[in-house]
Amino acid sequence: MAQSTTITAHESIRGIIAPPRQPSEPLTAEELTAVRKYIVDLKAEEFLATGSNAISLSSIYPFLLESLLNSPGLGDYRTLATDALSVWTQRTSQCCSKSQKFTSILLQQCTAASVHDADVVFDFVCEYWTDSGAALGNALRELFLKTISLIERIWTADEKRTRLGRWVDQILKYPKAMRVVYFTIEILAKQLGGRAILKKKPTLLVESLNLTYSNALANPVSKMITAILVTIRQDDIKQLGKKPDKDAVDEIDVKWLGLWIDDVREALKDDNLRPHIQIYLLPYIFRVSSKAYRMFLANLAAMDNGENFLHLQVCCFKVGQDLRLLEDDSSEISVLSTSFLSSLFCHSSPDLRIGGLSLAVSSPRASKPISSDVLDIIASNFDQLFLESDPEFRNRIYGFMRQMITRIRDSCVYLYREIKKKGSNEGLENMIKANKKFVDTYITYLQQLLRPGSSYQRINTGLRLYMTLVRSGLDEKVDAKWHDKNHLDFPFNVTLYTKNCVRLLIDNLVNNYEDIRETSAALLKMAPVDALLEGETVSARKLVIDGYASKGYIMITGLRGREGDGGARILDLCYYLYERIEKNSTFHLEFLYQILSNLENAIKEAERNLALAVTDFPLHGYFTTLRLIFDKLNYSNIANTDFFAVLLTRLCDLSRAIWEIVEPTLCSDAPEGSMPDEIEEEYLQNLEKDHGPASQVVLSYSWRAIGESSGLLTTLLTRVPEGMLSDNQLRGIGQLLLTELASIRHRGAFSSIYPTFVACCSRCNVSPREELSKLPQLWLDENIELVQTQAQVITRRSGGLPYLVTGVLAAESDPERPLLRRTFESLSAIAQTPVIMTDDKVDLPQVHALNCIKSVFIEAKLSSASAFYIDQALAMAITAFASEVWSIRNCGVMMFAALQTRLFGSRKVTDSRLTVGNMSARLFFGRYKQIKDILQRHLEQHVDQLNSGESANVETVYPVLSLLSRLEGTNDYTGLEPFRPLIMSCLSSRIWKIRESAAWSLMALVSRDSLIDTVVGLINELTPRAQNGNHGRLLAVQALVEKYLRGRESVVDDKIYHELIEQFGVVMYNRCSPNALLFIRICKLLADCVTNGTEKRDQLQLLMAKYLSTGIYRCGRGVGDKLLDTQCIQYFTEQILQRMKLTADVDTMFSDLVSCLSVDNQDACIASLEVICSHVGELKVEICDTLTDIVFDLRRYRRISPYAIRLYVALILRQDLTTYKPSAGVYYEVVNLINVRIEEQDLQSEAAIEALGVLSALRPIDGFFDSIRASVMADEMPFSVRRAGLVSTIAFLKTTYLLTSNRAMLPEETERVEAEILKLYAVLDDDDEELRAMATEFLSLDVLKLKFVTTSVYLKRTGRAMLKNFKAAIFSATVKELIPVQPGAQGFETALTTDTALFVIESPNLYRDEIETSQIWEDIGENALLNPKVQSQLLAAVRESLPALLLVIESQGYDGPLGWVSKPEVFTLGMKVLRLYRLLSQKALIPEQDLGEVYEKIRVLACKNSVHFMWGPWEL
Question: What percent of the chain has pLDDT over 90?
């Protein structure tokens, strides 16, 4: 630094901190930046030099500390202050290390190294670390580390140990969910040693491991555990001296492993904890000692070889593989053994399948070849890996398959280079061939996933994985611009864009799902143009594109959004191909002109006759086409700018024209828009018959048109370069959008137009011309004026006004946000203006101002800028709660909800109804400094008036309490104490919800240290008279106790038990049932916990038992009395069952049990039944026998019936089934409870269906079980009913297996069992994953006797061998699965019929793949085909369907891409017919010559008309 510059810097800083400025006055952000730069620029030597002009570090310190402690929570100031003090601390520490004299002077002149200041910094770090962003978090970490570094220079070792130890004690009292606990202990463990930490809290490791399920905590927890364990190991090794003996180190490793192996191993067994422990903790630990890794593996080998063992094994193998600990170890052989991988790939656990693929694919050496055996195993298990319905699983598979292709490429490149180096080598060449073979198999499989009729999951997976192949460079014809980074050429080439593949991709352009259409279009544009177009000449190729275009034009005139989008994708592809068909051609411009002309004609038709246009000339497809084209247009290559200018003008005119057409519909106050007169007069009946309700058709036409036209304008505004879009056009677009947003009533259209308006404002803001750059500000002023002038005509949610205001603000480019500041002030003034009420009208601009303010806070682009106004907005929202006008109160509710979500996130309420605290109170009020006074003032104004009966008081207090309940108290923070008397007053309010909210809010005032004393104090305040006050205090006690237990505390203080015992009679015998209910719940909650001793807890349990046995709670008839009765009966039943296990004399207890089932309160009876059912396995057989009839008799009561029936069945199964046989009367009574036409959940019917399984096994009655089971398991039935049918089937099979466990099945029993197993097998294709999982588990473990549960997909294939051997049941099943549901000409007519309804009725089963199922049954039914009756039925179906298929091919003619066979229903039906014919031909079961001739004609016509290749092969 130059001397003059240095002097200037000295003077500058001296000016900043010189008197009269006091240290208590925080520095500005600019001053902090200057001070920080000054300290950074001057080295330690310059501060230490004698006679130096440098400002004393001691004199700077107070200003930096005060700036830190008083830093606001918003903006970057706190980060800057933290960083400045951190830099100061580092420089000071360096000076201390270089000069003892400096250290002495520092101690005299500065408090930086004092215990007080160190504690202050530590408290600051702890308070703000948890909720900090990355920048502040890093700054706080650095400040903490550098503070410790300074301490080390100044404090003695004993002082450091003592004082840092107090920090450990302090941080251990923080809530376990705060990240700062683990960050700080990690650092402190390195200073004090791990043993010192564990001595203070021996259970820290176990408790911390249990938190690794959290994404936010997993890494810091793992680092902390590692720091503790590593320092322990290091300390032990240090004691061995400088050159420790290897055996001694190994011995230390053994002892060290013993410290944590059991805890870690147990945690690894938990599915929720294992992933993060594998990712974070184990790599940290095993990097320390490879010896520990091998010992850990050896320890695992001693475990039982169950599912947990597999999980642990995969987890540890993966860690060892990543750390290269297996490379020279024999364990690697077992990692990739074929049997081990096979067992992983077919396992039902997604984690094991992912783990197996990870082990197979990953390697520290990317060029290491994958063995051919592993490749074959992966190829044979594609179904298990790719057909999963869980999107998260598919995403993980996608990542590993992408990694696998990269590894195949890298390893093959390596092998090829080795061959070139060393010459021909058969082994290496075979390895390359094995990889090539795998890739070919992989491609074929992926193409099969893309066929018509495949489910969304299959096509989505196939397209995404195919994209990885294209980007990998596997096909050398694909342009290099599409390749991934770090591309290497494969040593072999595979053509990806074959004719068949191109057809599949083009067909998927019209798929029902947008992402599939989008991905298909992207893949097609990556293809070489030659692959997409047949023909040698330009004219021939143009004919192909023309054919696609003609189909696209048909598609874009469809009513549905997906049809318009699909047609647009086709036309966009056509434009892409026209542009590339010939150099310098104008085909694409002519095509674009034609699209535009067609759109103009369609708009003219709408202007002429809207009734006809809504069905025959939909517009949204045209606008989507133009949007897609203009989005990818290369504007730098536009040669004819005049032509393009004309295009833009026409497009802007069309957007205005469509608005004029749809304005009456979208601006109508009617929920579904206005109905044009001509529709009501002429077309209503026919329109509704063909397309659905006319109002829906018109509204869909309107909002899709305006939405897609807005999308086109967005593209033009964001993509068209400066200068091409004229100023007048930009103004015109802006005015159009302003009009639309100010007028529209349809909420769906708002969200479509809003992005366009933001884009328009953004474009104006960046314009160099002032007349444009000032437009958004002018529009904003007009919009704010609308808030007042149009208050009478805008809907209660303010229509598009919030979008108009927020759109301008979101596009604001000035970082100072002057428009936001001015707008908020204006809207606040309007919102707080008193309401003017007259006899004839109510002007409510306040409503619209509040709605506009709310929209500012929910706009993501304004999240940072709007934070400075949260406290003011919160005050307005709370004030609005007390308004006399309902609409203003409603706005206040919505704005308050939006602000609360903004402040705390969307986390709501836990199962225990306790609101989860999202932020510490100190942090919250430190960030939003004015909110505390606002909340306190509102409570003080209204709490005393709560009992006045005025709703305004309640509606103001409630949101304040709601907000306070989202905060958490921290030790030593007293900032919430002014709220305590106010909240305690609310606990005695006569309004239940206020008491409840106050109880939750009280938790924010209670720290972990004060929780026990607070609970004891609240219980002690209970009195015989003040029932509202008692209720509020009991609510608070319940909330605090649940918070205490939720923190995984293992011991309850005896003081709580003592107070509960003292107050038991005061509450429980006071005849106030709500309070008694709360009190008994609290007692039960604590009676089940561990205490310091058992005496007090036992006393409480005895009091409860005495009270429950008296039945005093059964007297009342009110709602609260019934709730108390229900709860007590539940507890009493549990108590009876517990005592029954401990004594042989059960007569009295049995009588009490029966009395619990005999109460008048049906809810209480249900509670008792549920308790008995959950403990039925613990009851003695004779008790079960006696209870059976009593329980069954309860079926007469409809509400009780479901629970009684389930318990009845459970009691039956506890008896000797070889001798027990229910009467026919019981069977029929259960059947009579079933409603086979269930359309929604019916608990009684479902319970009866489930019971029928056991009863049918014990007393077979022909016909009933099969017919009911068939009806309830139909795809159309509700999930709960299908589940009941599945449970019934499983129960039947389990009961039958029990009955025949000691004898062979009779033929009729075998036949019934086989029939039910076939029904279970059908459930493997159910649409619901839960039902598939239930069926898979039973079939895997109970029927096939496998070692573990497989995937349903794997089971469908492996179960074939068993099903083949079934007898009669397999015959009908084979016919059902192989024959089309509707064979013959009628089936094809139905499949070819186009559904013109606006909304499509979705298939009840989107999971089942009929073609795949048919393929599997061709194998299963191999033996069934030998049955003459089966042959006859199949032949009849072929005779009917094959000629019908020939007629269809003759009548439909040419197929090709987007052809008639591409329709899923047609494709599936034709595929089943052709496969059935080929199957019977292969088995020589078709005697007729004429069918052979029919098939030959089909083959010839199929070749001629390019019928879908998957219906083939067609070639001879």
Answer: 51
